[in-house]
């Protein structure tokens, strides 16, 4: 009898925990490599040059709604190393993830997809880039962390400036 009394509070607590959570929900379901490529157009001649490259780095993100509350976010990174204005190597990685995001306002959801999700994906993409570069027989390339919050703020500011310029420019025509 005592065993039943001890298990009842546990069952009641478990039943309470099983209720639908209230408020916004965010969770990672899966991380995967969607696409990657490595090119070394000047091999093997590039290995005979002094290695002092100029590195160009491009970053983009996109998000797509898969179904209600489920989103795919893709972080697209391109790294190009140039020696004397010629490409030594070009690496492109599309690191993706599937995220659950429910009960967020539109502005919150947009910011979540543009900042939190890429922050989660970036370490995986950075590792893939470093691996491809070293497999190409080049020195390791460990990218510095990226402040996606700052990038998002810059993007929003640029959009606001473009909108203001369009309003001002629209009156002159």
Kindly report the average pLDDT value.
88
Instruction: Summarize the main sheet.
Output: 4 strands, antiparallel
Rg of Cα set: 24 Å
SSE arrangement, N to C = HEEEEHH
* Structural class determined from secondary elements: alpha+beta
Task: List the domain count as a whole number.
Answer: 1
User: How many beta strands in the DSSP annotation?
Assistant: 4
Helix content: 40-55%
Query: Mind telling me the CATH class?
Result: Alpha Beta
Q: What is the approximate shape? A: flat
Q: How many helices?
A: 3
Enter the CATH topology name: Bacterial Protein-export protein SecB
CATH homologous superfamily classification: SecB-like
Residue fraction in strands: 25-35%
User: What is the architecture at the second tier of CATH?
Assistant: Roll
Main-sheet strand order equals 1-4-3-2
| CA-CA gap between termini | 86 Å
Low-confidence stretches: 9-14
Q: What does this entry look like structurally?
A:
The protein is an alpha+beta fold and 173 residues long. The chain has a single domain, classed as Roll (Bacterial Protein-export protein SecB), CATH 3.10.420.10. It has helices at 2-17, 106-135, 148-172, and strands spanning 25-39, 54-67, 70-83, 86-102. Strands 1-4-3-2 form a 4-stranded antiparallel beta sheet. The longest helix is centred in the last third of the chain and has 30 residues, at 106-135. The protein is flat. The N and C termini lie far apart (86 Å).
